Task: inverse folding
């Protein structure tokens, strides 16, 4: 049995989802000859550690009851540096201003020769090249499927299943909050403000929704795609971004009369006509990108396989955890 030793840094919805996924898939992993042991969990309040593994059920319960997993004086950096383990799972929140604290955590993990699996878009949108170089210099893997499409596999699809193909462009709906708002506005003829309030009540939109509705989240994901798949060496500042806040019921109605929908589309294209932008676009109602609700979708255009379309849930605790788990398993198969 291959024992893979982990830490989880950040224990909000995603971090707890990872813990639940490890508990839920214990027998499945054993069938793959893999055992995942979490030696430390850290959040803003501190950390819990255990030489034989942390009790994940107890950690989840403690987080719910007192707001932190802390049972020791360890900080997140202490867990990363001082506990001998193989993979750091960074599930800290995205910060597009400076990438912290995730950026520091990832760099520290690499310097201690630990693999990193993350769902945190901020550091990759700002310092992708630095992170990639640091991982390579220290001979460890850096995997981040969960940063782009939640449960929807784009990076692994491009790198593994489509290996040998040249991917010429990727376009898609990469933010479920925006897609929900536009879908409801289209279906019910409601205003942006009305649907935003509904989305906030349902927990689909944040109290401060600007990160989603202004296209920032989609732009971060495009940067990751551009760098990882196309080798473009871009940052968030290189993306042309327009959000959905100015879209009216009237414009959606006019589009519908022409058999079209308005969707927030992120697009990255390589070559002489290279482009990286986020903008509301007209999409035919029968087009592969015409998905509704909170679904995400991506259309990859390739030279040999032709157009490949993938859709799925782009957010959610257990959905995002599924992408993190797939990256952990990939490292476990290769390294141990």
Result:
């Amino acid at each position: 049995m291959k024992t893979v030793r982990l830490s989880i840094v950040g224990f909000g919805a995603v971090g707890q989802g990872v813990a639940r996924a490890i508990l839920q898939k214990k027998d499945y992993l054993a069938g793959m000859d893999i055992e995942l042991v979490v030696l430390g969990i850290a959040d803003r309040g501190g950390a819990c550690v255990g030489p034989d593994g942390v009790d994940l059920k107890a950690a989840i319960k403690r987080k719910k009851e007192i707001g932190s997993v802390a049972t020791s004086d360890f900080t997140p950096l202490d867990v990363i540096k001082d506990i001998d383990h193989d993979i750091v799972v960074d599930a800290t929140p995205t910060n597009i201003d400076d990438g912290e604290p995730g950026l520091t955590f990832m760099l520290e993990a690499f310097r201690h020769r630990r693999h990193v699996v993350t769902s945190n878009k901020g550091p990759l949108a700002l310092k992708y090249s630095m992170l990639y170089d640091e991982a390579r210099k220290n001979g460890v893997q850096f995997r981040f499927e969960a940063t782009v499409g939640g449960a929807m596999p784009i990076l692994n699809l491009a790198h593994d299943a489509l290996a040998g193909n040249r991917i010429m462009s990727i376009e898609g709906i990469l933010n479920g909050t925006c897609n929900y708002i536009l879908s409801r506005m289209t279906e019910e003829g409601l205003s942006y403000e009305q649907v935003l309030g509904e989305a906030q009540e349902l927990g689909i939109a944040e109290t401060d929704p600007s990160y989603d509705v202004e296209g920032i989240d989609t732009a971060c994901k495009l940067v990751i795609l551009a760098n990882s798949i196309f080798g473009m060496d871009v940052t968030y500042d290189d993306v042309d971004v327009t959000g959905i806040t100015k879209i009216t019921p009237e414009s959606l109605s006019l589009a519908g009369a022409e058999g079209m929908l308005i969707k927030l589309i992120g697009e990255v294209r390589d070559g002489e006509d290279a482009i990286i932008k986020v903008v509301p676009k007209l999409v035919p109602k029968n087009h592969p990108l015409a998905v509704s609700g909170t679904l995400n979708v991506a259309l990859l255009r390739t030279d040999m396989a032709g157009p490949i379309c993938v859709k799925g849930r782009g957010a959610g605790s257990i959905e995002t955890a599924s992408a993190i788990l797939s990256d952990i398993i990939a490292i476990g198969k290769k390294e141990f």
